[in-house]
Amino acid sequence: MTSVGTIAAAPSSSSPASHQLGSPAQQTMDMSAVLPPQSELHNDLDCGKRCCPSTLSCCLGLCPLAWICGITQVTFRQEAVVLNYGKYIGTLREPGCYCMNGCGTSIHWVSTSVCSTDLPALKVIDSRGNPLRVSGVVMWVVEDSKRAALEIRDYSNFLRSQAEVVMKQICSQHPYEARHPHEEDSLKTEAGKIRVDIVRLLQSKVHQAGIKVLDFSFNEISYAQEIASQMLVKQQAEAVVEARQITVNGAVGIAYDAIVQLRKKGIEVSQAEANRLASNLIITICSESHVQPTLSLGSVEERLAHV
Prior knowledge:
With 307 residues, this protein is α+β, with helices and mostly antiparallel strands. The chain has three domains: 4-10 and 17-35 and 113-223, Tetrahydropterin Synthase, Chain A; 38-111, no CATH class; 229-292. It contains nine helices and ten strands. The chain has helices spanning 47-51, 55-60, 64-68, 145-150, 155-171, 191-206, 225-264, 271-286, 300-305; strands at residues 4-5, 18-20, 71-74, 78-84, 87-92, 96-99, 105-111, 115-125, 131-142, 211-223. The strands form three sheets. It has a five-stranded antiparallel beta sheet with strand order 1-8-9-10-2. A three-stranded antiparallel beta sheet has the order 5-4-7. The longest helix has 40 residues, at 225-264.
């Protein structure tokens, strides 16, 4: 379920077929560089507009009850978008208590604090057609309260829906993992670079809502359940092949060094003996079971030659 609120750390877990990544809550961010100082925020709703926003409000404002109903309070990191009979007249940004003509006046409250939206695990198809489960966290803040209140019906839900679309779109352009090193950007190894593209594209979509996207992080990237077991077998097979390659390369190097060292020390080794020595060393090193040593007595021709 998606939620909007205070930044919280995401739980971490890992499996052979999944890739866990840190959320923005696990990163240090200077909020002073993100949010403007409260002293720099100024109201664009002066006293005249608060007292007489329209001719009808001025006439009805002769009743004292209209002023009592018009008392409102603006708290820290909160802005009040004020309408009078459906017409925008201004925004209250500075914290404090205000008294305005309440006749025909309505207020839309907008929080300017940093918020985070959890994106639930979604099924995404990567560039190679593999189904994935992807979830993430978006950090954002409202920088234009007028747009957030008037241009979009529900700006938090709007951001969540757009973030899900963008996350699917970007993830579908990359494979989960690259087949060869440095071949292409993959979700498993280049998540940091890919999330920059997500932030850029998401910002272009939510700009009309007065929202500034601060950061995006993946919570989890894993294969979907229907192919997780098959991909686990594939990963195990790739690990076995890689280990075998390392073992064979090492065995060949050891056999070569052994023959070179013997010849450097003056021990004559024929080509047939070198081949046999190399073969025995490679079999011994590469074998997974216990090797039984044997003594070669030579061929029949060699034994008859010594009789």
